[in-house]
Specification:
The structure is a single chain. The relative contact order is 0.12. The chain is an alpha/beta fold. Helix content is 28%, strand content 27%. It contains 16 helices and 29 strands. It folds into three domains: 65 residues, no CATH class; 287 residues, Metal-dependent hydrolases (TIM Barrel, Alpha-Beta Barrel), CATH 3.20.20.140; 186 residues, no CATH class. The strands form four sheets. Strands 18, 19, 20, 21, 24, 25, 26, 27, 28 and 29 form a ten-stranded mixed β-sheet that branches. The longest helix has 17 residues.
């Protein structure tokens, strides 16, 4: 009865405001409003009450308002939406992450939590509750997904009952090849909860059977597209297809946007997402605002590009009655920009509250995540430098060449991630040089070993150095290090240093730490402000530059962390012990 009374009071209040009898919260006037429904722009104003738009162009001689905001003739567009983001894999805790994305115009994210839950191990359910605590106080909206992989069925089931979880996250599509029962059970939970089921479709890897199986069981969306053929298959199979622009080759996003223009596919098929992205990248280039502008450069009309980052994303999750357009009844999530073709967020509102101005966050959030900080649990006591030596898989008959593994940081989806190549072999030593280019060495090292430790050694394309070493750690789904360098002893000393941390990234030279980024929250997040986190990631890059590396695009730490996705996918990470266990 009380619930019904609250609705009654609300509708009476709205009526009274529009009659001039009650006071609204905010009037935004002097706007050029983008109507994404009619695909037109009109001069007007927006009236806000209770976090929602309640009128377009209200009669200002009648309405009463507590606050008036002059929009300066700027374009008003809906708050931007990231349709698929690894909320737990970009290293910032939720409040610090908001400092980065909200000034770029992002007011809503649809977020994966699988790495965080997997890293927390036996504490996953408790950790997830702590992660989501106070989510409604953040300057952006978060809709989360329970893990579709990397955790137990029990963790997935518990998280499906939490706020703000709305469905099942990425399914472990490759394990369906063997009919993994955990996958079936998680899929059933997602369906039973009436939620959405995210799909990590991997059309470049799946056989025809699974191209049909995933949508047939109710998988809702697909962000794992890399080229024109992938996109065609994805939309043909009925997926809401998410165009991603996160860590990886910058040419991939351009290739996909050009394909949409070339094939004249309706923009309503597509949403925009980051997948994985660093806060440094957001601060230097932007978030969804940047990819909308890039889409326009590639030939998509400005309004259609904006709709891919607003209405079409909201509609794909059945939430276009809540946000995604500037219409009565929707949340007053509004971005004011001086251009539609090159998004420049001058002012950002969430629920009618001004939360960012000129790419600076105005709303401070007093949320403390230090309770999730863990104590280090070292695991490399018995590791020796010799275990990191580059040993040939095969030696040529004439003894001049050696076959080794090559890993490519940009090798997911559009190039081969790992392959066997022949390198020069001199005096019993592999010379890490191919086509005249010097390659660094890489070792993939299991942190906690019950018996023989899994170590995979090879050469590496993507991060190069003349001396020293750099290592990163990731605990999900199995605790592993990656170390890159030129010498086994230096790489070993570097790993031993990082092993004293919960997780993170360390650069060493002559066995001395030159830069470090600790990830103390279950090994996946930094208990730092945005400024502290960005300073730490940039210190890694600066130290690497001193060691001969010239970095472009994402920070080195983020590039290296993307390796763990493919290392897991292609079976290089074995063993069952994780950091939180």
């Amino acid at each position: 009865m009380m619930h019904q009374q609250a609705h009654y009071d609300h509708v009476r209040t709205i009526f009274a405001i529009l009659q001039g009898e009650r006071e609204a919260d905010l009037l935004l006037r002097n706007l050029n409003i983008l109507d994404v429904h009619s695909e037109s722009v009109h001069q007007g104003s927006l009236l806000v009450y209770g976090q929602r738009i309640i009128a377009l162009d209200p009669d200002e001689s009648i309405v009463k308002v507590r606050e008036v905001f002059d929009g300066e003739g700027l374009y008003a567009i809906p708050g931007l939406i990231d349709a698929h983001l690894h909320f737990d894999a970009q290293l910032a805790h939720p409040a610090a992450f908001g400092e980065a994305i909200v000034p770029s115009g992002t007011t809503t994210i649809f977020a994966e939590t699988l790495d965080f839950a997997s890293a927390a191990g036996d504490e996953a359910i408790e950790a997830a509750r702590a992660l989501f605590l106070g989510h409604d106080e953040l300057p952006y909206r978060i809709y989360a997904f329970a893990p579709g992989k990397k955790t137990s069925v029990e963790v997935t089931e518990a998280m499906l009952q939490m706020e703000p979880v709305i469905g099942l996250g990425e399914l472990a599509h490759l394990s369906y090849m063997t009919g993994n029962d955990d996958d079936f059970r998680k899929s059933a939970l997602g369906r039973a909860n009436g939620g959405f089921v995210n799909c990590h479709w991997g059309v470049t890897a799946l056989p025809d059977l699974l191209l049909n199986y995933m949508p047939a069981i109710g998988a809702h969306n697909n962000h794992d597209v890399w080229n024109e053929e992938d996109i065609e298959k994805s939309i043909r199979h009925g997926f809401h297809t998410q165009i991603k622009f996160g860590v990886g080759s910058p040419e991939v996003i351009k290739t996909m946007l050009r394909a949409i223009v070339k094939r004249r596919w309706p923009a309503e098929n597509f949403q925009l997402c980051a997948d994985n992205i660093s806060v440094d990248r957001v601060l230097t280039k932007g978030h969804i605002d940047w990819v909308i502008s890039l889409a326009v450069e590639m030939g998509i009309s400005p309004i259609q590009a904006i709709k891919m980052g607003t209405l079409y994303a909201a509609r794909s999750f059945g939430m276009d009655h809540e946000f995604g357009s500037l219409a009565p009844g929707r949340y007053a999530d509004i971005v004011l920009t001086d251009s539609l073709s090159k998004i420049n967020p001058r002012y950002v509102f969430k629920g009618g509250e001004l939360v960012a101005k000129d790419r600076k966050l105005l709303k401070t959030v007093d949320l403390d995540y230090s309770g999730m900080v863990k104590e280090p649990r070292p695991g490399l006591a018995d590791l020796t430098p010799e275990q990191l030596d580059l040993v040939p898989i095969e030696i040529s008959p004439d003894g001049t060449q050696a076959k080794v593994l090559l890993f490519d940081v940009y090798g997911r989806g559009h190039l081969k991630f790992s392959q066997e190549i022949w390198l020069p072999y001199q005096d019993g030593t592999v010379v890490p040089e191919a086509d005249g280019v010097r390659l660094s060495r890489i070792s993939v090292v299991q942190r906690y070993a019950d018996g023989e430790r899994n170590v995979v050694n090879g050469v590496f394309k993507g991060v190069s150095m003349d001396s020293g070493a750099v290592s990163t750690f990731w605990p999900a789904p199995v605790a592993y290090f990656v170390v890159v360098g030129t010498d086994s002893a230096e790489m070993h000393a570097n790993l031993k240093q990082l092993d004293t941390y919960v997780g993170g990234c360390i650069v060493t030279r002559d066995r001395q730490v030159k830069a470090a980024l600790p990830l103390d929250i279950y090994g996946v997040m930094a208990d730092m402000s945005l400024t502290e986190l960005v300073d730490a990631t940039r210190s890694i890059d600066a130290a690497m530059e001193e060691l001969g590396h010239r970095n472009e695009g994402e920070p080195v730490v983020n590039k290296l962390l993307t390796l763990f996705i493919s290392l897991d996918r292609f079976g290089f990470m074995t063993g069952g012990c994780c950091a939180g266990a």
